[in-house]
């Protein structure tokens, strides 16, 4: 299990959301409430858009709750769009190349969940990666392979469509090994302008995923909350689990759903339907 | 909060107790049951007596549950006497020099608990350390200072007495700052032959501490348990919290009590009574 | 031995000086030319003024040449005033709390060199630290003690004067132990507006220290160098060793000299003369 | 570039060879003399046979010269057969899964050198790995791929033959990409009883490799050297570069040569001739 969050809105000091939020992502690294396990202490990552070309990434194998550098960076970096991820490793080593977000050019990618029996599928799935991208896979997580499959299948042109094809391809490959509940989780993607998120499981309930409500509604609900009063209509959060229990602030994203957040706080929602691919050896390209 | 364990008995593969025990110390790093917090993920340490002069130490800032090197060492080191400690930092940095056990010559030292308002007392307490030992303090924990005070006050001649004088000195120094509940915790000490453990709090209940029962009683209680049948009369464990819920296997060490474990499994118990020292600037030496 | 650099001038992407400079500080971590040792691989630190209150710090125990996070940060942080330091440990542990720069409020501090026989002096020097500052010493380097002595002796009011008193105090304390060549090195200090640097050794030649020349002179000398043409009259560098062999670009700072760099590129130079303090136990405050 | 060493002989405290040898492997991590670069500071690994089943491995991303745990382990582990490796990364991340030795069951594997243009060949070579072994590749080095190819091609039955087939396969695959000088380096292999070493380059001189001379000859040459007098006829070292300049102690292993060291100090030498494999997609199995 892992936890992630993404912010798209006015430029904020990252600290505001990582450390100042009551039950923010750093608190979730130690005390997650909605996952299979409360502890997400096997490294973390922060990807942000700001100064310099493309997104910056800070990844560490330390638990997020105890890393002094994360606290420093959060307090001295401002960004209108960033993603943070805290990791609970399930099998693959605790190393920076296994920490999310993963990056390709302008793109960032995070995941909470897993590919079932990944050790059985890893070879087939890596063969389906566009060969020139193969050597870019530096770690050993399922997520990095999913990301490179999605890049292979058109992520940069159509993020949701590419993820539907990717999940379809994985389910097909898994089926060939007799694995049914192949894909579990939530995915987050950004190119620096737009934010996409998917909640999906091949079988049973998918990992939790929430979007912050319309800021004007939040301000109206909690007129005395100073932090909320600073929210503008541009501001949206997507999170694995809410930062607070306040009613009306968080909307659960339904199962098998994809969400798109545009600048200006506009949030679109549609069904997420995997597109089966009948052959791993001939991926759509 | 932290958790620790100590073994004195027949030489065993360390793995047997660190990883194979149902709720061993590594499991406690992720899921402690009896502490203020379930997570002890801010580094760990292992000190063992075996090949080579004096005790060896392996310390790491990684959580114990995810460190592949700890697993390797545990599986390839055999020892008749070792201590392991998993840390939950409360204020001081996560760094190897803050990980227990601390060492001086043949001696190892671990602690679960704290010195209250240590930042107020640190200078006074460090001044009370025997000057030639001062430069050996490499980290910034309260425990390392306690250890060097105890060395100053005769740990190598009379471990329990030195700890009584040390706790008395700390309580006196704390009193001067208006701090009442100065010392909290359990302490473990060894010189490679004998094992000493103390449970004590200046005020209120002290951190939990348990000793394994007489091995013959354990074997009798659980005749079908293969692991228990391998226990000899030499074998004793001291632990922050039991490795299992089995009745009759673990005896709680009472409040304000010191325990001595000799080779041969002999366990002695006596009251632990801090010896007040009226001046920090003139420690008993 | 260590190496450090400081920039005061127009806001630049830190990458420009850390990685793009031909023989910049990261290259010096692997291939220093002017020090006792070519390798400065025992951790590093970056302190910068920019977004957020006070300076940010990123410190790591990895060698600077191989740390992917440093590369990321350098490429995504812009600052008008920053300091970087690569460390070659001589005795004290490789841990983040021993990495420079050290910080106190708005102040940053770096050092290349050593206090001779520091283990003999550590206690005396720590006793001379203003008691409320004592608990802030988190690591075990001589430099952190020097910094806290300087804070005790007025760094925030008069940086150069405080360093003269600090060095005098150390030399006096060392004399009491029969140590003559007590202080060796170069020091860098900043409050976010001004930059101070000192080159001094109690005996023999001090560690090397250089300032970049007047930018207009540099531009005039190298009219075809694009990077140099971007220099404005505000820009100044202080470095342990030059980033290039180009004549006219770097001026050696003389022995026993203090330099002050103000905004606008103004560089003042004066003699550095330690002020002896006759008693460690009664520091000037 | 990297440096490695292997010991087969009487059980020794690992410290004797890692730290006590004048120019041992830890000194080579900071000051190698025979490689392209003096610094091998991008992690290290130690693999040893001793207590417990199979070899133990300790790997770290710290430079070997500054890792306190390595010093501890070396001083408290005794082994009749061990390998140590210090790494200079050339492209792939500094992470434990990229540190040598690599392990499979009873087998250990180290390498000094590289596969040229590995990013171009990585996919082809990984496809040639026996599919059930594919998921065991945890890092991103060329060496780990070479090891798994050698396992695919019979390492456990015929180590030298399998390496000849592996090198042949790599050279064939490289030829298909127009790469000529594909393989460079020295390789070390052990199963816990025997030690094999290979020195080979597809083009030009291969990385240096030396074997210690017959112990009786060494004792005879240096009758006053206490350490040498402790050598028995069982003892042999294979090293990337000699631990000393003493004449008669080290024999250079010729280019394109494989060496086998049996218990009892018996050293056999034969030509190493890659066996071309015409198709990557149909490896010899």
Strand-helix topology:
Four copies of one chain form a homotetramer.
Chain A: E1 2-13, H1 14-18, H2 25-31, E2 44-49, E3 56-60, H3 68-76, E4 78-87, E5 102-104, E6 107-115, H4 118-127, H5 131-134, H6 142-152, H7 159-176, E7 183-190, E8 195-201, E9 210-212, H8 215-221, H9 226-229, E10 236-239, E11 250-252, E12 257-261, E13 267-271
Antiparallel strand pairs in A: 1-4, 1-10, 2-3, 2-4, 5-6, 6-7, 7-8, 8-12, 9-10, 9-11, 12-13
Helix pairs in contact in A: 4-6, 6-7
What's a concise summary of this model?
The first copy, chain A, is α+β, with helices and mostly antiparallel strands and 285 residues long. Chain A has 9 helices and 13 strands.
Tell me what the structure shows.
Four copies of one chain form a homotetramer. With 285 residues, the first copy, chain A, is an alpha+beta fold. Helix content of chain A is 26%, strand content 28%. The first copy, chain A, is built from nine helices and 13 strands. The first copy, chain A, has helices at residues 14-18, 25-31, 68-76, 118-127, 131-134, 142-152, 159-176, 215-221, 226-229, and strands at residues 2-13, 44-49, 56-60, 78-87, 102-104, 107-115, 183-190, 195-201, 210-212, 236-239, 250-252, 257-261, 267-271. In chain A, the strands form two sheets. A seven-stranded antiparallel sheet of chain A has the order 3-2-4-1-10-9-11. Chain A has a six-stranded antiparallel sheet with strand order 5-6-7-8-12-13. In chain A, helix 4 runs parallel beside helix 6 (142-152) and helix 6 (142-152) crosses helix 7 (159-176). Chain A is globular, with a radius of gyration of 18 Å. Chain A starts with a strand and ends in a 14-residue tail after the last strand. Mean pLDDT of chain A is 93; it is low at 280-285. The A-C interface holds A 13, 15, 48, 50-53, 56-60, 68-69, 72-73, 75-78, 96 and C 13, 15, 48, 50-53, 56-60, 68-69, 72-73, 75-78, 96.
